[in-house]
Amino acid sequence: MVKRDNSKTLWYALAGAAAGVVNGFFGGGGGQVLVPLLAGKCGLDQRKAFATSVAVIAPLCALSAGIYWFRGDLDLALALPYLAGGLVGGFVGGKVFRKLSMVWLRRAFALLILYGGVRAFL
User: Fold this and answer.
1) Where are the domains of the chain?
2) Do residues 31 and 54 touch, judged by C-beta distance below 8 A?
3) pTM for the whole thing?
4) Residue 6 — φ and ψ, nearest 5°?
């Protein structure tokens, strides 16, 4: 286990809170907030920031999905095909993650954020 600098504990909590708010508002996307905060303010290297983001976002997504489901806003039958594809994609992405250059991972992440921003704006 890695020893954490206690002065950064507040930044970890704030980064998690920001990711949770984004996930709650938009049904996802908390990682787009979390990765830059983990890498910048929390001082994690890029690979650890990406991996830690996945570990944090998974339960946040489950919580948000549960809230949407209890409110009647989630159609589980409609979500199942996406879940199946997402599980395959997550497995492949996790296996390939170590083999990719951080330069290309950062570029792909930036393009994903840019694409999402343009789609939301239009």
Assistant:
1) 8-121
2) yes
3) 0.70
4) -60, -25
